[in-house]
Amino acid sequence: MRTIAVAAAEDEPVLQAVAKAKEMGLCNAVLVGEKVKIESLLKELHIDDEFRIIDEKSPAQAAKIAANLVREGECDILMKGLVDTKSLLRAVLDKEKGLATGNLISHVAAFEVEGYDRMLFVTDAAMNTYPGLKEKVGILNNAVNFVTSLGVEKPKVAVVCAVEVVNEAMQATIDAAMLSKMNDRGQIRGCLVDGPLALDNALSVEAAEHKGIKSPVAGHADILLMPNIESGNVLYKSLTYAAYAKTGGVLLGAKAPVVVTSRADSFESKVNSIAMAVLNASVK
């Protein structure tokens, strides 16, 4: 069974999710944080599981300790508790005790959308703000490696833009065309890439046919590579709150998967995110 290191674990929703994940046989956990508060919360929540607790009152220091536990192989996954994301990422990127590999770190979210015949993956909705072409290659590769590990033999990647034609005034469309050509030439492997594609063309065969788009990706996308964090975040929240999709997310590209959930994320989403991290850790 995999083990998750929770940084600043004195957080009720996180403890509930970790306890549920253990009950489901997904993972065990080491809780790093203020021991008195953690024990009090476990008692209030009627969580009887025995977890190893490392006492540390400073959330930033708890993040460093948790990251180092993963680095040293005592744990397999890092998870954010009651610590700000900046402090957690600082611990992840620490050269001496962190999880940096030199690779780009990016976020991948998985969605189970009613009416869609497969899982849908969106990247990057939480980490990289305005990625250039080089960063988009890293984001794409992280997502493809993860989706492939789930058994999707050759994921179809739609590079999403506002339009489906290259427009020199829209850099995202130029990047999309370059990513598609890089895939054609074998510079990006293990997937099929097409772009630029507007969102409707990426998801709907009918929309693609109506616009005369002939592509094995159009209407069949597994992965939606978004142009920037704003569009990615809007799509993420639209699928979550308007389409009521089941979701989970994980940071990839470090030495181990990192679970960075928002306090607004549902209990189910937190458990799903842990499950995604466990799957990723199992193939490393």
Helicity level, as a percent range?
40-55%
Regarding quaternary structure, how should these chains be classified? single chain
Total strands: the figure is 11
Strand order of the largest sheet: 8-7-9-6-5-10
Rg (CA only): 19 Å
Strand content: 15-25%
Q: Structural class, please?
A: alpha/beta
- Secondary structure tally, helices: 10
Rough shape? elongated
Rounded mean pLDDT score: 94
Low-confidence stretches: none
| SSE arrangement, N to C | EHEHEHEHEEHEHEHHEHEEH
In angstroms, what separates the terminal alpha carbons?
14 Å
* Major beta sheet summary: 6 strands, mixed
List the helices and strands and how they pair.
Layout (H helix, E strand, L loop, with lengths): L1 E6 L4 H12 L3 E7 L1 H10 L7 E4 L3 H13 L5 E4 L4 H9 L12 E7 L7 E4 L9 H17 L6 E5 L10 H14 L7 E6 L1 H5 L1 H6 L12 E3 L3 H13 L4 E7 L5 E2 L7 H16 L2
Helix pairs in contact: 1-10, 3-4
Keywords: Acyltransferase, Transferase
GO molecular function: phosphate butyryltransferase activity
Organism: Proteiniclasticum aestuarii
Textual characterization of the structure:
- With 284 residues, the chain is α/β, with parallel strands linked by helices.
- The chain has 10 helices and 11 strands.
- The strands form 2 sheets. It has a 6-stranded mixed sheet with strand order 8-7-9-6-5-10, sandwiched between helices. The protein has a 5-stranded parallel sheet with strand order 3-2-1-4-11, with helices on both faces.
- Helix 1 links the parallel strand 1 and strand 2.
- Helix 1 (12-23) crosses helix 10 (267-282) and helix 3 packs parallel to helix 4.
- It is elongated, with a radius of gyration of 19 Å.
